[in-house]
């Protein structure tokens, strides 16, 4: 399996990365450094995680060339709008200590604002300070609304996606549109790791349930960003390129879907 996925604009995005939601600024430095030392290139942060500084520090401590890394951050809801999006992006770059990011995402589809935010994101993209731009938590109808005024189609939609929320229709739509799917809370925030089906498949492959879920995402063509702050688990979550789930196992994991959200529904959030 290729370790990267080509986005619509030709940029290669790593298929497996580290998420750092609910990671303290200080802890983010070590987590990012350990991840990069163990082969990760993709790091997923956001302004609202309040750890962009720690992430930037981890990147510097890893002593890895900038072009070998793929850094994502996101525009927070309170900063949506044309001018405020430009300002928020500059603030994120400054906190990260970087002169560009690889991917900048609209974090949530704030009604009445995301089209204006996108105009700023398109300008940021054209300036070269974001190598790709995309959205997060957008349903099909949000993307259709965005496209009424957009010049550039989002390259990525980062959505809640795990074996108990498989979002088949949305993924089909995104595939048809050439928009890469990125899975957030890919391990179901750790809550599904005891699931008997996952445990049984894991035992058969001599892998952990977390590794089986990550592999299921990769074989489903989703980009995946599991979070951990523990070095051993960070390593474990990347050790998934030396085994393969068969069709039957893939189908059994698909069948765990119960349309259960752990986070807010993008049609009904108040933050
Ligand atoms: P996740 O599904 O990645 O689960 C993380 C939890 O699983 C850990 O806290 C730990 O308890 C457990 N875990 C991780 N590796 C393990 C292992 N090898 N063995 C046993 N347990 C393990 O949860 P997440 O942090 O919610 O999602 C991942 C990333 O997705 C976030 O860090 C963030 O970057 C992104 N995210 C984005 C949004 C969005 O709105 N765009 C929302 C939520 C998360």
TrEMBL record:
Site (Lowers pKa of active site Tyr): 74
Protein name (Swiss-Prot/TrEMBL): Aldo/keto reductase
Family membership noted in the UniProt record: Belongs to the aldo/keto reductase family.
Swiss-Prot/TrEMBL keywords: NADP, Oxidoreductase
Pfam families in the record: Aldo_ket_red
Keyword field contains Oxidoreductase: yes
Residues binding substrate, per UniProt: 107
Single Gene Ontology MF annotation: oxidoreductase activity, acting on the CH-OH group of donors, NAD or NADP as acceptor
Domain NADP-dependent oxidoreductase: 16-257
Keyword tRNA processing: no
Residue ranges that the Swiss-Prot or TrEMBL entry lists as coiled coil: none
Active site as annotated: 49 (proton donor)
PROSITE patterns in the cross-refs: ALDOKETO_REDUCTASE_2, ALDOKETO_REDUCTASE_3
SUPFAM superfamilies: NAD(P)-linked oxidoreductase
UniProt cross-references to InterPro entries, sorted A to Z: AKR (IPR020471), Aldo/ket_reductase_CS (IPR018170), NAD(P)_OxRdtase_dom_sf (IPR036812), NADP_OxRdtase_dom (IPR023210)
């Amino acid at each position: 399996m290729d370790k990267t996925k080509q986005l619509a604009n030709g940029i290669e995005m790593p298929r497996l990365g580290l998420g750092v939601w609910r990671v303290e600024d200080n802890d983010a430095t070590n987590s990012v450094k350990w991840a990069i030392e163990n082969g990760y290139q993709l790091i997923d942060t956001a302004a609202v995680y309040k750890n962009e500084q720690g992430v930037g520090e981890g990147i510097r401590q890893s002593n890895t060339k900038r072009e070998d890394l793929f850094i994502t951050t996101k525009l927070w809801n309170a900063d949506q709008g044309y001018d405020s999006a430009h300002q928020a992006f500059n603030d994120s770059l400054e906190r990260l200590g970087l002169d560009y990011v690889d991917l900048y995402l609209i974090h949530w589809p704030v009604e009445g604002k995301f089209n204006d935010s996108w105009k700023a994101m398109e300008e940021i993209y054209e300036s070269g300070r974001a190598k790709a731009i995309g959205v997060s938590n957008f349903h099909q109808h949000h993307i259709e609304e965005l496209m009424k005024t957009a010049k550039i189609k989002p390259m990525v939609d980062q959505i809640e996606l795990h074996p108990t929320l498989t979002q088949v229709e949305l993924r089909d739509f995104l595939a048809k549109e050439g928009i890469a799917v990125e899975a957030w809370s890919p391990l179901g925030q750790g809550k599904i790791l005891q699931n008997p089906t996952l445990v049984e498949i894991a035992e058969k492959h001599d892998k952990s349930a977390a590794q089986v879920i990550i592999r299921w995402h990769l074989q489903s063509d989703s980009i995946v960003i599991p979070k951990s702050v523990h070095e051993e688990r960070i390593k474990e979550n990347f050790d998934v390129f030396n085994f393969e789930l068969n069709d039957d196992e893939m189908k059994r994991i698909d069948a765990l879907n119960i349309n259960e959200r752990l986070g807010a529904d993008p049609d009904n959030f108040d933050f």
